[in-house]
Amino acid sequence: MAQEPGAEPLVRRSEETSRGSTELSDLATLKALAQPRRQRMLQHLTVHGPATSATLARALGLNTGATSYHLRELARYGFVEEVDRPAEAGGHGRERWWRAVPGDRRFPPRSRQSAEMRLVMDELNHHAYAADLELFEQMQMQVQRQLRTRGWSGRWAKPIPGSTPSPTRAAASG
After folding, report:
1. What are phi and psi of 158, to 5 degrees?
2. 153: burial class by Cβ within 10 Å (0-12, 13-18, 19+)?
3. Are 14 and 23 in contact (CB under 8 A)?
4. For each of the chain's 174 residues, which pLDDT tens digit applies?
5. What is the rounded CA–CA span in Å between residue 117 and residue 40?
6. How many CB atoms neighbour CB 117 within 10 A?
7. 3-state SS track over the chain
8. CA-atom Rg of the chain in angstroms
9. First to last CA, the chain
10. How large is the angle between the packed helices 115-150 and 36-48, nearest 10 degrees?
11. How is the beta sheet containing 51-52 ordered, strand by strand?
12. What predicted TM-score, i.e. pTM, was given to this entire model?
């Protein structure tokens, strides 16, 4: 269920720092964010902009019921919010559109984390690193496809000279 306009999200955060960043120090908030599907959904909304639960479900290979639930949980902790349907979007007037709430969110330093918080942070980092690696691999494949499509095969598209052993150097050192 969407929050009432003007209602504060159920987030218990430390006070904002002088630079305007917010430290996420509440264990329940961190647990909500550490859920892998929620991380993927939040990343998708951040990169691609507002979407419905059905749009997210199709893009991420999830079912719409689970997607809807996770969006409500992300909203509960202030990571996403419901927005008006974009003018360029077709579809039904009853659809609920969501967007990532921008902000500079930071985590407490490890020295201030409890043992339980460290476990949650380790899980959160594990999933975040895996998502970053997956995104990097997707971008590499996209660039390679574009290079092949355009017929570019210049030296700059090959490994840096010396970064891989040449047949003569490999034979000389062996």
Report:
1. -95, 170
2. exposed
3. yes
4. 444 444 444 444 444 444 578 899 899 999 999 999 999 999 999 989 999 999 999 999 999 999 999 999 999 999 999 998 776 666 566 789 999 999 898 999 999 999 999 999 999 999 889 888 988 898 899 988 888 787 776 555 555 556 555 555 545 555
5. 21
6. 18
7. CCCCCCCCCCCCCCCCCCCCCEECCCHHHHHHHHCHHHHHHHHHHHHHCCEEHHHHHHHHCCCHHHHHHHHHHHHHCCCEEEECCCCCCCCCCCCCEEEECCCCEECCCHHHCCHHHHHHHHHHHHHHHHHHHHHHHHHHHHHHHHHHHHCCCCHHHCCCCCCCCCHHHHHHHC
8. 22
9. 67
10. 50
11. 51-52, 97-100, 80-83
12. 0.66
Place of tokens 């893009």: 59
